[in-house]
Specification:
By secondary structure, this protein is an alpha+beta fold. It has 9 helices and 24 strands. An 8-stranded mixed sheet has the order 7-6-10-4-3-13-16-15, with no helix packed on it.
Length: about 475
């Protein structure tokens, strides 16, 4: 997610605008692939890359279920006008992470048309208080397939933040009868049954049928269009907050990034035309990032413009708000670079809980400052002074970045303060060792979920030095560390 504008500050007469495991990650064994006679007859190995280690989120404990590991979401959706009704069939391959008396997922109260578990009809399934409860017992590590057919009118959920661009989360209906999503830290449950927490990454197949003249865009790799049905597939695991859906009267432009990476830009004619030149600079953004952090982690990329004031690093298809009072190309492009940086930091490597949001946003923010430094030629000293000044203000106002508050999601402390910490780490290591560390972090841990402890362990092992005190002091201190 991009950072809301803080306070403009002059640096060299230029405005600086903001916009583990220490072992290499490896493919896990196929869920359910066992010689155990109790193992399911169905082969779940095709979804093995979607296996995760779910963790209960301490910041938003009402969302997500640490007892379930969704391996794969297959979503068949249809958007109907003028009724503004979403009809869906969500088929989930699930590995229970613990024995449980029922299957419980996050879900808005749509009308349930049919629910099955392993093709057997289930009676008594219910949706209430943003929770789907399916009264079927499950056994640890014995995968099941849950299918939920539903329909209804989309409704959003409040965002727990004081950001200037805060808006209701989830699937939003636009004035023209289209759709878009913003769903960090949660909100995917407003359009499909989801284990809506960052630690449960899964594979996706999405098929969306829309009215004539409309297009549907989702995160993942485009997999074709047949009539008015658009399909997308994600063969790299994705957290629910990184999925997206946009429906509207879109136009499409295409390009190619480094090494021929296919890029797609979705925009509306008219006011969006002024943003298109910025979108088409994506190859330049990706080249900047690849030089420092290694190959782009996914098979394709792109951007979709939506009726929002915010931006979001949705995986392979960045969601950018077009509701900007006064368009500033430089500021907009800094936000784009920030969201592209998240494809490495946050998407490929994802935090286990929202306590460690700093691990996503700190990296993306520091990368954005490096981009701005290259553009505007301000010195390291000037960047240091800027970071320390606003680090002090943010800690005083919001608190240290390692201890975020539930009511202050994604506010400035989890951007500026960890970026300042990374600047100190960069200074201590020098550029060569720092970027080697950053590249190794992404390229060896992609597809995984990480936290503070695993990051510290990785840094110490990679560098051969003990940076535990430096990292912890920047994450925990109520005042800016010396």
């Amino acid at each position: 997610m991009h950072r809301s504008p803080l306070l403009a500050v002059a640096l060299a007469a230029v405005v600086l605008i903001a916009g583990c495991d220490d072992k290499p990650a490896a493919d896990k064994p196929a869920a359910g692939a066992s010689a155990d006679p109790a193992a399911p007859a169905k082969d779940y190995s095709a979804w093995a890359r979607g296996e995760s280690t779910p963790v209960a989120d301490p910041i938003y404990p009402k969302h997500g279920n640490a007892s379930l590991d969704v391996l794969h979401y297959d979503l068949k959706l249809s958007w109907a006008l003028p009724a503004k009704t979403l009809t869906g069939l969500a088929t989930l391959q699930i590995r229970p992470a613990a024995d449980a008396a029922s299957i419980e997922l996050d879900f808005k109260p749509y009308t349930l048309d049919r629910v099955t578990v392993d093709d057997e009809a289930v009676t008594g399934a219910r949706v209430s208080a943003e929770r789907l409860v399916v009264p079927v017992a499950v056994t640890k590590d014995k995968p099941v397939t849950l299918a939920v057919a539903y329909h209804g009118k989309p409704a959003t959920t409040p965002m727990p933040s004081h950001r200037s661009d805060a808006e209701p989360l989830g699937l939003t209906v636009t004035k023209e009868g289209g759709l878009y999503t913003m769903q960090e830290p949660f909100g995917a449950f407003t359009w499909y049954p989801a284990n809506d927490q960052p630690s449960d990454k899964a594979l996706y197949d999405i098929e969306v049928t829309v009215p004539a003249g409309y297009s549907a865009i989702a995160a993942g790799t485009p997999a074709g269009v047949k009539g008015t049905t658009f399909t997308y597939a994600s063969d790299q695991p994705m957290a629910t907050y990184l999925q997206t859906l946009a429906v509207g009267r879109y136009k499409k432009a295409t390009g190619k990034g480094p090494r021929g990476i296919p890029l797609t830009y979705w925009y509306r004619a008219g006011t969006d035309n002024k943003m298109l030149p910025s979108l088409k600079k994506s190859p330049k953004f990706l080249a900047f990032l690849e030089k420092r952090f290694g190959p782009y982690p996914f098979a394709s990329g792109g951007i979709v413009l939506v009726d929002s004031p915010s931006g979001m690093e949705t995986q392979q298809m960045i969601t950018m708000g077009r509701e900007i009072k006064k368009f500033d190309a430089a500021y907009f492009e800094e936000d784009l670079l920030h969201e592209y940086a998240h494809q490495w930091f946050g998407d490929a490597v994802t935090t286990s809980t929202w306590t460690d949001l700093w691990l996503n946003e700190g990296w993306a923010m520091y990368v954005q400052f490096l981009w701005e430094q290259e553009l505007y030629h301000f010195s390291d000293k000037e960047l240091e002074e800027y970071l320390r000044k606003y680090d002090a203000l943010d800690r005083k106002k919001i608190g240290p970045p390692g201890h975020p508050k539930a009511a202050n999601f994604a506010e400035d402390n989890v951007y500026i303060c960890p970026a300042a910490m990374l600047k100190e780490l960069n200074d201590a290591l020098g550029d060569a060792k720092f970027f080697a560390l950053a590249k190794a972090w992404v390229q060896t841990q992609k597809g995984s979920q990480q936290d503070r402890a695993s990051f510290i362990a990785f840094v110490n092992k990679q560098t051969g030095k003990d940076f535990t005190k430096l990292i912890n002091s920047w994450l925990d201190s109520k005042t800016t560390p010396r």
